[in-house]
Amino acid sequence: MSLARLIYLSDSNEVITWKLVKDILSVAQENNKLQNITGILLSQGLHFLQVLEGEELDIQELYTHIKNDRRHGNLQLLSCESIDQRQFGEWSMKGVEFIDFDKDKQKKILDKYCQGGEDFYLPEDPQQCIQLINDFGLTRST
């Protein structure tokens, strides 16, 4: 058995509200506890960024299930790689919205992750995704 981290982006088929995120989280948290899967779900605009950690076969099975979820589309698998330790071991699934952060943190993130003065974007590079999560101060190693 090998521990793995999978990172993907997707587009929501509906406006992402905190209610939608809470609905996703309530199911994910229970199911993930049973499979010993941890991770984080970020939402911005109509986009999701999710990081999943766990046994590689469990992660692949979950990702197949996620691909069939009609609430979103245009999934982009950014990476799936073996890891030595989890970064999100404390959370069966943590949900985060950009607007949850104070104005100073939002400004720092916007300064770093805005393209040409446009809206904040979720990066497509796996290392930048992890860096974004680190910039938010969300990383928890176990």
TrEMBL record:
Species classification: Bacteria, Pseudomonadati, Pseudomonadota, Gammaproteobacteria, Alteromonadales
Domain of life: Bacteria
Domain BLUF: 3-94
Identification of the protein by name: BLUF domain-containing protein
Organism per entry: Aliiglaciecola litoralis
Gene3D superfamilies the record matches: 3.30.70.100
InterPro entries in the cross-refs: Acylphosphatase-like_dom_sf, BLUF_domain
Pfam families (alphabetical): BLUF
